[in-house]
Amino acid sequence: MVLSSSFRTLLRLNRQSRSGQYVALFPNWNRAKSYYVTTPIYYVNSVPHLGHLYTTILADASCRWEKMKNVNSTFTDSKLVTGTDEHGLKVKQAADAQQMDPLVFCDQVSERFRKMIKVFGIDASDFVRTTEQRHYEAVQHFWQKVEENGFIYKGQYKGWYSIPDEAYVSESAITLEKDKISGETYRISKESGHRLQWMEEENYMFKLSAFTDQVREWILSDSQRVHPVKFRAKLLHELQTPLEDISISRDVSKVPWGVPVPGDSAHRVYVWFDALVNYLTAAGYPQVNGTTYSNMWPADVHIVGQDIMRFHAVYWPAFLLAAGLKLPKQVVVHSHWLCDNRKMSKSTGNVVDPFETALSVTPEGLRYFLLKQGVLGDDCNFSEKLLYNGLNSDLANDYGNCLHRIMGKRLNPLKVYPGELVGTSNADHAIDDDSIKEVIISVQHLAEEIQPYYRDFYFYKGINAIMKVVQLVNIMVTKHKVWELKRTDSNQAAFLDTVLYCSYEAMRVCSILLQPIAPELASFALSKLGVPQDCRGLDDAMKSFASLEGGQDKMVGQPLGHDMKPLFRRLELPESLTSKQSQAQ
Ligand code: MSP
């Protein structure tokens, strides 16, 4: 770290060097555009689980980040769309098992997904249900376009089908397995492990084979098209084998629960062909002349789990090309969540219920945990130990405690945003202190450091960078024993104000940047710090320590918020953990 003898010169140099890098790193910074991010639409054959919540929170964090970036520009059109996938065999089977009318069953389970959106503060602008009239119209219109363009034909389909995946499985993706009890041999999908059924019927086929090269070129034309690179490489490898045509309808007698094929009520549209079109439905399709549709399409990002990557990055672009529509800009893929390093499954009984977990750790706590623990390309592990210890350490001890320490009545009796006494010898004295210098420099770099992380969905890296700054603030405050400094002594008071100013600035910037991760917690902290609603954008986090540079800091002297509740209450460890820990001792 290069340090100049004068603090203010140091700050200026620091800022100048940053603005140079900034342009080079972020050439698209000023692009004015709308942002449209999607989650998969969730099957309603079962209720929301941790994996569904994770995909949704990734989308929400990304959408909130885009909004924050653009808060001060004329463009603020960021949209997140989610919903439920309600057709197909497995939903019908689930409804039959409950002896319920499929639509009544769908209404009930879909409502649970809406509740998830609400409870976890997901800022969704639309919720598409595939049983809605507007979606039927979109699917049928889309089908007709593909048909008019010559990519649908009638044929005899023979092959293996996985109901849990609602997918046709080719011979090369099948393996044999023997039932341990009956000794019977059956076929399973190598990828999902699900048992397959033989299917033989006349139905409508899609000429997927016509699109192998175009899909490959689309992926190759942008290194970020399928992100992260691990999944991109997997897809490109698969695309070395030419694509085969696929069936896109089922006989109505086998699958009565679905969208009728236009002009042929003896067939229902294949559930994936139907479901993928939801991304267009939300964009206002097929009213192609309507502004909504033209503004929102193509989508910026489809966020999907690895199990459904192929549908989004191979089938979907091929369908869109066949319909003559633009292709989405990016498909972001994440791996799966395990529980205590084991696959979550109903039979093992280890499926994590997000609602139940949030009851003990709060919805914001669970959001924070998922984004801190989740890494796109690797399986993510959920464990109570990681959850409770991580939240107590980061949110209760580091972040919450830091805020509490610097906002106490004794340190800040006037309850206003503190300001350093510019030009006094105390400021210059403070600059010679390493712990203060480190806070200032790291805060000044934070917003810039975080941008590529958030842009590329590496939220955990952003969280780690923020928490590092919070830790530096705690170190600074402890080192200077600020609680021992006396306001009656003008020198000590000025030094105290300098340290407080640095702490408040650090917590202000950290909290602004934490908004996409834990919006309510961050907003609570910002209100405590007295930061007005219209000063919470990325621009505001880019600017810090204005008064130390000799400028006017609009925050200095602002009244603080009145809420003295703790930011995050320390969590009581559940019995399962305390008994494990005491056994270990
Ligand atoms: N209905 C289809 C998607 C159609 S989109 C046009 C579907 N639904 S799903 O409910 O089965 O899965 C939705 C999402 O949840 C997928 O992205 C899937 O990868 C994700 N997850 C399901 N289990 C998961 C984990 N254990 N961990 C992380 N995500 C997982 O597929």
Report on this structure.
The two termini are about 45 Å apart. The chain is built from 21 helices and 19 strands. Mean pLDDT is about 90; it is low at about 1-5 and about 15-30. Strands 1, 2, 3, 4, 10, 15 and 16 form a seven-stranded parallel beta sheet that branches. A four-stranded antiparallel beta sheet has the order 6-5-9-11. The chain is an alpha/beta fold and about 575 residues long. Helix 12 (about 355-360) packs across helix 13, helix 16 packs antiparallel against helix 17 (about 460-480) and helix 17 runs antiparallel to helix 18 (about 490-515). The longest helix is centred in the last third of the chain and has 25 residues, at about 490-515. The radius of gyration is 27 Å and the shape is elongated.
